[in-house]
Amino acid sequence: MFCIPYVKCLPLIALYGQLLLGLINGSFYALLSLGLAVIFGMLRVINFAHGALYMLGAFVSWWLSIAFGIPYWGALVLAPLAVGVVAVVIEKTMLHQMYRLDPLYGLLLTFGITQVIEGTFRYFYGASGQPYPPPAALSGPLNLGFMILPIYRGWVVLVSILACLGTWLLIERTRIGAYLRAATENPVLVQTFGINVPLMMTLTYAFGAALAGFAGVLAAPIYQVSPLMGTNLIIIVFAVVVAGGMGSILGAIVTGYILGLLEGLTKVFYPEASNIVIFVVMAIVLLLRPAGLFGRAA
Question: Angle 74-79-84 (CA atoms, 0-180°, nearest 5)?
Answer without folding.
Answer: 140
